[in-house]
Amino acid sequence: MLPTAPAQTLVHGRDRLSGRLPATVGGARAWVITVMLMLLMMINFADKAVLGLAATSIREEFGLTAQQYGTISSAFFLLFSVSAVVVGHLADRFSTKKVLLVLALIWSVAMLPVIGPAGFLVILLSRVVLGAAEGPAFGVAQHAVHKWFDDADRSVPTAWLTIATSLGVIVGAPALSWMIDAHGWRSAFLLVAVVGVVWSAVWLVVGRDGPIDLHATDISTQRVRPLDRIHVPVRKVLSTRTWIGCALSAFAGYWAVSLLIAWVPAFLTDDLGYSKATSGTLTALPWIVGVIALFAQGFGTQRLMRSGVSSRWARGVMPGLITLAAGAFTLVSIFAHGNGMTLALLTIGLGLSGAAFAAGMVACGEIAPVGQRGVVLGTFVAFYSLAGVIAPYVAGVLVDRAGDDPTSGYTATFALTGVIAIVGGLLAITLVSPERDAALLTAAAGQSD
Q: Which parts of 191-325 are beta strand (E)?
């Protein structure tokens, strides 16, 4: 059962007269919106994962090299970062409900061209459009959730949204793998497109913008921080040590997640020798570890914040240590003997890597004025998702260069991934301090007035 925040403030009293759930900060409707956005993130990551699950079938049908497949995987992120910034900016000016609806419909339609007589170019262009639509989704969804919860209570709903990305693969990977085996890889693409359209129809009825908004005139002034009453140039927010530390550590985490989506299914099939169906099931294991880690981090962070612990420790040091551990497990996996030990270490290492996203989202939200939060979070997503452009392509190059010995290519890939995660964890521990940077931004704006 999802927890509810203890303090709830009724914002729109008319909701009781209309029979709808009242728009209370941290109330029942806040959690309905959170659940809907969790479902959206599940669909989002199932869309991402379906290509990796179908990788072997697609490469066999079209005769693609590892580097060509890596190019298709990276193409997903070609406009991902640009659209995350642009749409994040729009989310500060327009209804997040409408923005998310448009994004979901676009990415559902983008899945359809590959169902016909597809080829390398068709799949490539489809992934480009899909990435452009899905790029802003996580940042805008987090921005939407933040409108429903006070700062001290945002860690848990933020963690739930991040957990949903893992659940999308945990639930989707076995189902989509079965579809691919039983009905061909195109059926899996059709399934995720239909599910996206169904979500859009429900969201059109259920979705709503939250009450904590710069433009909300009926929200209690107690909900508005001093930082929310000023305008800070976005470049100043993006140049804070907190934003830089969050962005770099999330980049490291997303490097691992990108490989988990694009290359781990192929690694399990081509290098470790598992069947496609078994690989689909095993692919879910790191995501299960991620769910457990995010639960622990989300509830732990919220408990620390409510106990008066600084956000530097709750949102910087603790997630940094988790990312550091993720890198260590991934790096050690290359020295393991036997499929079982290799799989166990990679499961833990890659599974822990998602901790940087949830913590980074909340920390960046803490240093962003509410009227600029959309673009700050969008730029955060845009930066760390650059890893999604680079990592799959680099992995493809390394595997191709290994020639008849793909094991050495995968070994180099996971060694590099481990080192990047270790560096990212150290940067989060060293740089992230949201309370300090929020105070500096507020003071700087006051001096300039």
A: none
- Segment 83-102, tens digit of pLDDT: 988 998 898 888 999 999 99
Instruction: Give the C-alpha separation, 374 to 372, whole Å.
Output: 6
CB 434 within 8 A of CB 368: no
Domains of the chain in sequence order? 22-214+226-448 (1.20.1250.20)
Question: What is the distance between the terminal CA atoms of the chain, rounded to a whole angstrom?
Answer: 47
Find the helix packing angle between 406-431 and 339-352, rounded to 10°: 30
Indicate the average pLDDT of the chain. Answer: 85
Tell me the pTM.
0.75
Buried b (16+ CB within 10 A) or exposed e, 191-218: bbbebbeebbeebeeebbbbbbbbebee
pLDDT tens across 376-424, in order? 988 998 899 889 889 988 998 999 888 888 889 999 999 999 999 999 9
Dihedral of alpha carbons 294, 299, 305, 307, sign:
negative
What are the angstrom distances between the C-alpha of 225 and each of 21, 201, 230, 310? 26, 35, 10, 17
Q: Which helix (H) or strand (E) holds 423?
A: helix 406-431
224 near 320, Cβ under 8 Å?
Answer: no
pLDDT in tens, 172-205: 888 888 899 889 888 999 999 999 999 999 999 9
Nearest to 351 by CA among 256, 238, 250: 256
